[in-house]
From TrEMBL:
PANTHER family: LARIAT DEBRANCHING ENZYME, RNA LARIAT DEBRANCHING ENZYME. Pfam families: DBR1, Metallophos. It is found in: Nucleus. Residues 387-396, 486-511 have a biased composition (Basic and acidic residues). GO terms for molecular function: metal ion binding; RNA lariat debranching enzyme activity. Its cofactor is Mn(2+); Zn(2+); Fe(2+). One of its GO terms (biological process) is mRNA splicing, via spliceosome. One of its GO terms (cellular component) is nucleus. This is DBR1 enzyme. Keywords: Hydrolase, Iron, Manganese, Metal-binding, mRNA processing, Nucleus, Zinc. Residues 235-381 form the Lariat debranching enzyme C-terminal domain. The gene is Dbr1.
Length: 539
């Protein structure tokens, strides 16, 4: 079957679907499935806009509301994950996934589904070390901290995905797996996006949590977005035993929604089960994992670690048996079809009656209620509501005290991972600073020139084959202690290098003592991501 993959669409659904229809008319190419790798922006109304972490001038309604209201319907089944520019209050209604509009399905904080026998997984949000070990405690109305932390990846979602044993065909993440740039045309990447050089050379660009999942899941395809540059890589995974067959992952990072000529390079042929139906289906192993890990659900701001084999936990392996998977199948009477139970949970935007003062509210979505009741799971939003009403634990009483903490977290609660790139921005801690030059150019590492009449084979996009060395592996065992030991062993020269690197970073964003910058003007990713309206009209 043909699968189209899109990067950040930023709510421009009309443009995206019109592009696919144009492809069909001009090139007789019709995808069976569309995957979107975050920054989808399922904005229903003005209240949703207030829950999106972008500067006010970029809060545009776009066109999703037309699909939410039923005025339009997605012409192709669409599955997406969340990014870091979303209507977080809307997506929060569906922590386990669900329909945001007819024929448009959100995978949840993390999820796995099946379509025509193809197994598709994903994880929403971006990685930030200071929120990684917290629970999903946020709820609208958000403050300046929670409007961002709401879309930060949590360790429980990574832990759940790591319990999977069966092969994954396709996986999506918004930010790139850390180190993936070493397996493609890195030279060309840095030529097009020179401001990535410092993070690439220090191996801090991207998500260490996604890197961990990449090594564990070893999917056939991995798609990402976020950085607004097209980049391909090919990773040959190491085998754990002589009996294990070699596995490789084809990685593709997508630019934002592109003209139809570029979309041709983002449609791949995926082997599928010809006997499978055309409905989106639950994945029985994933449902079994959700049931097995339900006791680990946390809705507090307290930092906590997932169970490990370290002598501190009675149980650390939550992977499921074939018997547990069989029980899920029996519960569903072997009918895995995801019910088309979309319902409106908020007023839809009416261009003739704008409501600029509409306030967001915390909503319990019937889809989530039904899903949790069917499989015996905790409704995260219901648990948050209870905590708020009772004012217990980390509810309202202690929340205000917690929110006074600096967004970079507390040194007394070290993250499982010791680095992220949040410190590069003095405006928005979730954005990387971008140079004025470079813009949003498309970067393709295809070994053949793309042609609108002859779309290249997907395999030609991968310029290198390498095996990831153990030294690049990032696992849950690589905690702060091991990092500190390495620093101690490296001696004074290493400290001097780090000091010099830190000074260069500070100079980069701080300028001289008179406030004048000694380098080229830089801007937030937001300013590069959100093109001006005039530019959009010319695309």
């Amino acid at each position: 079957m043909k699968v189209a993959v899109a990067g950040c669409c930023h709510g421009a659904l009309d443009k995206m679907y019109e592009t696919l229809e144009l492809l069909q008319r001009r090139h007789n190419v019709r995808p069976d499935l569309l995957l979107c790798c975050g920054d989808f922006q399922a904005v229903r109304n003005e209240a949703d806009l207030r829950c999106m972490a972008v500067p006010a001038k970029y809060r545009h309604m776009q066109t999703f509301y037309r699909y939410y209201s039923g005025e339009k319907k997605a012409p192709v089944l669409t599955v997406f994950i969340g990014g870091n520019h979303e209507a977080s209050n809307h997506l929060q209604e569906l922590p386990y996934g669900g329909w945001v509009a007819p024929n448009i399905y959100y995978l949840g904080y993390a999820g796995v589904v099946r379509f025509r026998g193809v197994r598709i997984g994903g994880i929403s949000g971006i990685f930030k070390s200071h929120d990684y070990r917290k629970g999903h405690f946020e709820c609208p109305p958000y403050n300046q901290q929670t409007i961002r932390s709401a879309y930060h990846v949590r360790n429980i979602e990574v832990f759940k995905l790591k319990q999977l044993k069966r092969p994954i065909d396709i996986f999506m993440s918004h930010d790139w797996p850390r180190s993936i740039y070493h397996y493609g045309n890195k030279k060309q990447l840095l030529k097009m996006k020179s401001f990535f050089r410092q993070e690439v050379e220090s191996n801090t660009l991207g998500s260490p949590a996604a890197s961990e999942l990449l090594q564990h899941l070893k999917p056939t395809y991995w798609f990402s977005a976020h950085l607004h540059v097209k980049f391909a890589a090919f990773m040959q995974h190491e085998t754990n035993s002589k009996e294990e067959l070699p596995k490789a992952t084809k990685f593709l990072a997508l630019d934002k929604c592109l003209p139809h000529r570029d979309f041709l390079q983002q449609i791949i042929d995926v082997e599928h089960d010809p006997n499978a139906g055309d409905s989106l289906e639950y994945d029985p192993e994933w449902i079994a994992v959700l049931k097995a890990t339900n006791s680990l659900v946390n809705v507090t701001q307290s930092s906590w670690n997932m169970p490990e084999k370290n002598g501190l936990h009675a149980k650390w392996d939550y992977s499921v048996t074939e018997e547990a998977i069989k029980e899920v199948l029996e519960e569903l009477n072997h009918d895995l079809k995801i019910p088309c139970n979309f319902t409106l949970t908020a007023a839809c935007y009416d261009p003739s009656k704008p409501q600029k003062n509409m306030e967001p509210v915390h909503t319990i979505n019937p889809q989530t209620t039904e899903f949790c009741a069917q499989f015996g799971l905790t409704d995260i939003n219901d648990r948050i509501q209870q905590a708020k009403e009772e004012g217990s634990g980390r509810g309202e009483c202690e929340e205000e005290e917690e929110e006074e903490m600096d967004s970079t977290g507390s040194a007394e609660e070290p993250s499982e991972y010791n680095t992220d790139n949040s410190g590069l921005s003095s405006f928005n801690p979730d954005e990387i600073m971008l140079d004025e030059e470079g813009g949003d150019e498309d970067l393709s590492t295809c070994s053949v020139d793309p042609s609108p009449d002859h779309p290249p084979e997907f395999s030609t996009s991968f310029s290198d084959i390498r095996i990831m060395p153990d030294s690049m592996a990032v696992s849950s065992d690589d905690a702060m202690d091991s990092n500190n030991e390495e620093l101690e062993k490296s001696g004074g020269s290493k400290q001097a290098e780090e000091k010099s690197s830190t000074e260069r970073s500070l100079k980069r964003i701080g300028g001289d003592e008179n406030g004048n910058s000694g380098v080229k003007k830089i801007k937030r990713r937001n300013q590069a991501i959100y093109a001006a309206e005039d530019e959009d009209k010319t695309d």
